[in-house]
Amino acid sequence: MSNHFHSGAKQTSFTLSELTQAAETLQASGKVQEAIDLYRQWLQHGKDECKHVAWFNYGWLLQKQNKFDEAAQAYDQLTHNYANYLSGNSAMA
């Protein structure tokens, strides 16, 4: 994985770990909106069975930016995806 990130990059093939690392790098360099966008893109297309972890991180970033309605929607997706994960039905997530 490259440590160089571009705004609007469609990194939907990241693993969950790579996604988290990339988002943390963006946040550390003051590019919080880019980190939010990266999570949003990945969540639309990512197939990781632990997608609920990304929904939590995404919701937390939104909440930190005072985007409470969007954060609430992300947390709703978190609970939905976590329930699917627990039931072993991650294909629906």
What does this protein look like?
- The chain has helices at 16-28, 32-45, 51-64, 68-87.
- The longest helix is centred in the C-terminal third of the chain and has 20 residues, at 68-87.
- It has a single domain, classed as Serine Threonine Protein Phosphatase 5, Tetratricopeptide repeat (Alpha Horseshoe).
- It has 93 residues and is mostly helical.
- The protein is 66% helix and 0% strand.
- The chain starts with 15 loop residues before the first helix and ends in a 6-residue tail after the last helix.
SSE ordering? HHHH
Low-pLDDT ranges: 1-9
In terms of DSSP E residues, the strand content is under 5%
The number of E-state strands comes to 0
**CATH superfamily descriptor:** Tetratricopeptide repeat domain
Provide the number of structural domains. 1
End-to-end separation: 25 Å
Strands, helices and their partners?
Layout: H1 16-28, H2 32-45, H3 51-64, H4 68-87
Helix pairs in contact: 1-2, 2-3, 3-4
Give a quick precis of the structure.
The protein is mainly α and 93 residues long. Helices cover 66% and strands 0% of the residues. Helix 2 runs antiparallel to helix 3 and helix 3 packs antiparallel against helix 4.
Features:
Serine Threonine Protein Phosphatase 5, Tetratricopeptide repeat, 4 helices
